[in-house]
């Protein structure tokens, strides 16, 4: 994979070169994953254009897009909105988990519930996402707000369809872990305001760290929900990816070498 150093985003990487279990590799910058793009500079966008990005797939809610618009610079770069039911942390039931326990453990419980819900929230959009790679619209940049939760599960499912080993998928997911102290001042303020507004009270830095973190148990909670609700990842992908066995074979031959 290739970690991209951009001035306006800090969780951007191409999955070029990622190996699959059968010995092949993703053979180009077909899949790029990122946090939100509203701060990208002209030079940042130029870097993405150099990678050949044709489609930006935005998993954020309409409200998030209005507050932080991406403003794609080129007519030849398409913008696809796949709204994954907004930011579920704004759901009062989920937010209450942190509001009632505004410390690290409350944030952890909230994040586990977010991940349990993500597979069902992503399901209606998977066929459109997977279809981008068979319709000439790749390379695709997939992003949400942090590039970790919605994007993390969506990319994990795509990598599974490509035959990437679970351990590799987890290692890629864990690269999105962040801590509050690592953020610049503007992002610290934005993150604090967002979390405090969500629960209508101040929360600890440790709680914010739990929200920013990428933990194995978070992604495993999504997998457990897929097993319980849909009979496993293979069954889930057959039902929602829009790909039959031939389609999976074609996808792999297109993106792998």
TrEMBL record:
Q: Which InterPro entries match?
A: Prot-tyrosine_phosphatase-like, Tyr/Ser_Pase_IphP-type, Tyr_Pase_AS, Tyr_Pase_dom
- Could you give a GO molecular-function term held by this entry? phosphoprotein phosphatase activity
Q: Which Gene3D superfamilies match?
A: Protein tyrosine phosphatase superfamily
Q: Name one Pfam family in it.
A: Y_phosphatase3
What sequence ranges are listed for the domain Tyrosine specific protein phosphatases? 112-159
Q: So what family is this one in?
A: Belongs to the protein-tyrosine phosphatase family.
Q: What is this protein called?
A: Protein-tyrosine-phosphatase
Its lineage opens with:
Bacteria, Pseudomonadati, Pseudomonadota, Gammaproteobacteria, Pseudomonadales
């Amino acid at each position: 994979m290739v970690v991209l150093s951009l001035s306006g985003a800090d969780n951007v990487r191409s999955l070029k070169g990622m190996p699959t279990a059968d010995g092949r590799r993703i053979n180009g910058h077909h899949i790029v994953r990122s946090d939100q793009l509203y701060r990208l500079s002209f030079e940042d966008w130029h870097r993405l254009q150099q990678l050949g990005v044709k489609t930006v797939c935005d998993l954020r809610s309409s409200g998030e897009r209005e507050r932080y618009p991406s403003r794609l610079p080129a007519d030849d770069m398409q913008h696809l909105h796949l709204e994954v039911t907004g930011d579920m942390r704004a759901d009062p039931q989920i937010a209450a988990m942190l509001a009632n326990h505004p410390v690290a453990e409350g944030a952890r419980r909230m994040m586990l519930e977010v991940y349990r819900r993500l597979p069902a929230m992503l399901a209606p959009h998977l066929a459109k996402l997977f279809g981008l790679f068979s319709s000439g619209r790749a390379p695709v940049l997939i992003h949400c707000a942090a590039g970790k939760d919605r994007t993390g599960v969506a990319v994990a499912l795509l990598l599974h369809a490509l035959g990437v080993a679970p351990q590799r998928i987890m290692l890629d997911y864990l690269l999105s872990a962040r801590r509050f102290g690592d953020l610049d001042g503007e992002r610290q303020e934005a993150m604090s305001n967002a979390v405090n507004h969500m629960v209508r009270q101040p929360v600890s830095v440790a709680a914010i760290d739990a929200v920013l973190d990428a933990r194995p148990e978070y992604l495993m909670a999504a997998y457990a929900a897929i097993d319980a609700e849909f009979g496993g990842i293979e069954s889930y992908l057959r039902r929602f990816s829009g790909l039959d066995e031939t389609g999976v074979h074609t996808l792999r031959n297109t993106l792998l070498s």
